[in-house]
Write a structure and sequence with these properties.
There is one protein chain. The chain is mainly α. The chain has one domain. The chain has six helices and no strands. The chain has helices at about 10-15, 15-60, 70-85, 90-115, 120-150, 155-215. The protein is rod-shaped and about 90 Å long. The protein starts with 7 loop residues before the first helix and ends in a 10-residue tail after the last helix. Mean pLDDT is about 85; it is low at about 215-223.
């Protein structure tokens, strides 16, 4: 390949087989990370909306099944079911703590499920630059071997091989940068949603405790 023929396609086609393998791995890692990113964008929007509706329903003392969307229904049902198991001599604080503990366990299960494949983004972000660098080093070594064999050191001879090697580094960065940005954003959003869900659980625990220990001590109706 001469200088006039340098293009992304030609750089890949004329690269060393090992460098080609590195480029393919980086391309597939980047593609997979974008799939995860778009999947999480859709998921987190839905989860955030469900948590807001959950908080609104608890604030309005609406304990019907229709008031709790998506995954929040299982959290509310766990709290309401636990509230019907009252121990003798239990204080309001103990009663509320028991309900909230049960609901937090259910929430933790959901949050773990929502975090599936997020660590994949961290892996891509951390490893891609080094994989690309490995391809670059190997490609430059291969280029120098070719120079030694031909004895030519002109720019037209050296540039194509160096360009092929540096392409691996560029692909590593192209895979890593979106992955690390998405990982940080998704992680922060997960933490924010967890805080909001815990606030809703705390409020629901307080509302249910009020049903038992407030005026009249009325039990919540079954959903």
């Amino acid at each position: 390949m001469n200088g006039a023929e340098i293009s992304l396609k030609n750089m890949f086609m004329h690269a060393d087989p090992l460098v080609q393998g590195v480029m393919v791995i980086l391309f597939l890692a980047s593609l997979a990370s974008w799939v995860v990113i778009f999947e999480k964008i859709v998921l987190l929007r839905r989860v955030g909306r469900d948590i807001r509706l959950f908080l609104m329903a608890v604030g309005r003392l609406n304990f019907s099944r229709q008031a709790f969307p998506g995954f929040t229904l299982s959290i509310a049902e766990a709290g309401i079911a636990e509230s019907r198991e009252r121990s003798e001599g239990e204080s309001r604080g103990d009663f509320r703590a028991r309900l909230e503990s049960v609901m937090r366990v259910v929430l933790a299960g959901h949050m773990n499920r929502f975090e599936d494949r997020v660590l994949f983004l961290a892996t891509v972000a951390a490893s891609s630059p080094f994989i690309g660098l490995f391809g670059t080093v190997w490609g430059i070594m291969h280029s120098f071997i070719g120079i030694a064999a031909t004895g030519e050191t002109t720019l037209a001879v050296v540039a194509p091989g160096i360009a092929e090697a540096l392409l691996a580094t560029a692909m590593g960065l192209a895979a890593a940068i979106p992955a690390v940005i998405a990982f940080n954003k998704i992680s922060n959003t997960h933490k924010k949603m967890a805080r909001e869900a815990l606030a809703a659980i705390s409020l629901l625990g307080n509302r249910l405790a009020g049903q038992y220990y407030g005026a009249g001590g009325v039990r919540p109706e079954r959903a």
